[in-house]
Design a protein that fits this description.
The structure holds two protein chains of two kinds. Chain A has helices spanning 4-25, 29-45, 53-73, 95-105, 109-120, 125-132, 136-153. By secondary structure, chain A is an all-alpha fold. Chain B is an alpha+beta fold. Chain B is 53% helix and 12% strand. Chain B is built from ten helices and five strands. In chain B, strand 2 (80-85) and strand 3 form a beta hairpin. Chain B is extended. Classes of the chains: A mainly alpha, B alpha+beta. The A-B interface holds A 1, 3-4, 7-8, 11-12, 15-16, 18-20, 23, 32-33, 36-37, 40-41, 44, 75-76, 78, 87-89, 91-94, 96-98, 100-101, 104, 115-116, 119-120, 154, 157-161 and B 1-9, 11-15, 17-19, 21-23, 25-27, 29-30, 33-34, 114, 116-117, 120, 159-160, 163-164, 166.
Chain lengths: 161, 259
């Protein structure tokens, strides 16, 4: 089991990353709190060493996605409803960013993950495929469909700048 | 656009409150798991053996406890049914107030299911059998003897029913509330759900010519509509003789078995 110091360090380094994954999937702050705690609990109970910081981060993202999925499988959990429901305090978001985030939140789960991992975290399709246990082709398909939906929702701007 | 994504997601950060609660939780977990296990002692063994004996002796008690009603959830759309729930949130009894309710219950096996799971099955089956129309009203009442239990169950029922309604793109309306034991008892005397009983009382306040018997064949939604109309028009009518667009099941002489 990892130490308290390691736990503190991990929370400090990866809190925002885990929070963003929760943001993509969870409809209320209480669920976010549960998953957030569970992810870092799994981290401290995971005994094997990580090869690198990148490996550690990817592991945490994968665990966070799986924890969100598990929570959502229970009865009557709603998916993301609105930006206002899912934070303890309001996020300070400009209108343009709000529009983008709202559009992303309206995508199916699997598309939200790939959009976030590809465009924000900068993972390649191969890396995303490994993280999500899917084939590379599936990831490309999801990315393509997600981009198409976002393009429709956001007025036709290109994504690949 | 990619930059705009980054800007948008950069706004999403872990709240200080979230990090603090997680760190406190992790600290607690680390300390709990770090405590050394004590060696088995005679005292501990005696404690374990006593627990086993108590468990065996409490077997009968637990069996009885399992089958003791703890709460009643009535769902009246039409069909009109009652689910009896135990302390463990399991269905231990089902009852149909009308033949439509009997029809639905005959298609389901809800006993021993978690009540939330049972609610999904119930409303899904009601829908599949064509009982749900646009603007149907789903009336759900809860009766339980304990205030804390009432609070917990009512909160969960409200969430559950809201989630179900949202799946119907809001063409359904819902009314979820708690009733007293007295109200349920009074409703039972007429073999109608508490929601229908209260809706009829409300209508009778405005139109004294109305009786429970004249209303029982109408859905709660229809009764409430009648109340709104009479409230607006300020007159009573021959409600009992107005067959109208009648969605209620055949209540005459129906007495489903109460389990």
């Amino acid at each position: 089991m990892r130490s308290e110091a390691e736990a503190n360090s991990a929370v400090e380094k990866y809190a925002d990353t885990v929070r963003r994954v929760c943001f993509l999937h969870l409809g209320n702050y209480s669920d976010v709190e549960d998953v957030f705690q569970e992810v870092f609990l799994k981290y401290i109970l995971y005994d094997r060493p990580f090869e690198s910081d990148a490996h550690e981060k990817a592991w945490l993202i994968r665990v966070a996605i799986n924890c969100c999925k598990d929570l959502l499988k229970s009865f009557f959990r709603r998916n993301v409803s609105s930006l206002e429901d899912i934070a303890a305090e309001p996020f300070y978001i400009q209108d343009e960013s709000k529009e983008i985030l709202d559009a992303i939140l309206k995508l199916p789960d699997k598309y939200r993950n790939v959009i976030y991992l590809f465009y924000y975290e900068g993972y390649t399709a191969v890396e995303i495929a490994n993280m999500l246990n899917k084939s590379e082709n599936t990831i490309y398909t999801w990315l393509s469909r997600a981009k198409s939906k976002l393009k429709d929702a956001l007025g036709g701007e290109s994504f690949d700048e | 656009m990619t930059n705009k994504f980054k800007t948008a997601f950069d706004c999403i950060c872990a709240e200080d409150k979230l990090k603090e609660s997680a760190l406190a939780y992790l600290q607690d977990e680390i300390q709990k798991r770090a405590k050394p296990r004590s060696r088995v002692s005679f005292r501990r063994l005696a404690a374990v053996l006593s627990s086993v004996v108590i468990l065996i002796l409490s077997g009968v008690f637990s069996y009885n406890l399992y089958f003791t009603p703890n709460a009643y959830v009535d769902v009246d759309i039409n069909p009109s049914v009652e689910l009896t729930i135990n302390l463990f949130d399991r269905i231990i009894g089902v009852y149909a107030y009308n033949s439509d309710g009997e029809d639905i219950l005959s298609k389901l096996d809800l006993k021993h299911k978690n009540y939330e799971e049972a609610l999904i099955s119930l409303i899904t089956t009601i829908d599949k059998n064509g009982y749900i129309q646009d603007n149907s009203l789903v009336s759900v009442t809860l009766q339980t003897g304990s205030e804390s239990r009432e609070y917990k169950l009512l909160t969960q029922l409200e969430d559950d029913i809201t989630a179900i309604i949202s799946a119907y793109n809001d063409v359904l309306q819902a009314d979820v509330f708690a009733v007293s034991g007295d109200t349920r008892e009074e409703a039972l005397k007429y073999n109608i759900s508490p929601a229908k009983y209260l809706a009829i009382l409300e209508l009778m306040d405005i139109d004294p010519t109305v009786t429970v018997e004249s209303c029982r064949g109408h859905s709660v939604g229809e009764i409430k509509q009648m109340t709104r109309e009479r409230h607006g028009s300020g007159h009573s009518s021959d409600f009992g003789n107005n067959g109208g667009d009648h969605h209620g099941g055949n209540e005459n002489g129906y007495h489903g078995g109460r389990e």
